Amino acid sequence: MICIGWNCRGLGNPRTVRELHHWVKTKCPDFVFLMETKCNRNKLELIRNKIGFSCSFVIESRGASRGIAMLWKDDKEVDLVSYTQHHISIIVNQPTTNQKFILTGFYGHLNASKRSGSWNLLRELKAQSNMAWLCIGDFNEICH
Predict the structure, then answer these.
(1) Averaged over 30-57, what is the pLDDT?
(2) Is residue 144 a part of any domain in this protein?
(3) Is the pLDDT of residue 143 over 90?
(4) Regarding beta strands 77-84 and 87-94, do their DSSP bridges make them parallel or antiparallel, or are they unpaired?
């Protein structure tokens, strides 16, 4: 399984969409998590179709900032677990191995004074399940 997490800083620029298409074509990911999409659901669904994905869950941008989206291929078995302005969590079922895991796309607070809230959200998300957990994204934090 291959995942891509990308802070694309807006999908309004055709060059950015071409770059996304290039990454998808060369890496062949099963899941793509996008941050700072800066666009609405309709625009994101057009881009999703253009790059060859059939399913998505979108948190629309607020004005000209934010916005996150999780994209996946039609052959994946996915159930939505939870979402906020800062994350999307899904359960991925792997029928060939009969295993499930949680995939979380995460985008931490931009404001340094609110980053402790980001870490608290991650702790809460992990505490909700004993399943294997993969978290991808931009934490907006330098730890070391």
Answers:
(1) 94
(2) no
(3) no
(4) antiparallel
* Mean pLDDT for all residues in the chain: 92
In a domain, 61, yes or no: yes
Angle between helices 14-27 and 41-50 (to 10 degrees): 40
- Please state, for a pLDDT cut of 90, what percent of the chain lies above it: 74
Q: Is residue 95 part of a domain?
A: yes
* 143 falls within a domain: no
The whole domain housing 97 covers 3-138
pLDDT digit string, tens, across residues 59-112: 998 876 789 999 999 999 999 999 999 999 999 998 888 899 999 999 998 888
Q: Which residues contact 55 (CB under 8 A, 6 or more apart)?
A: 71, 72, 73, 74, 76, 78
**How many residues in the chain?**
144
What pLDDT was estimated at residue 142? 77
Domains in the chain, number: 1
CATH code of the domain covering residue 38: 3.60.10.10
Nearest to 22 by CA among 45, 39, 6: 6
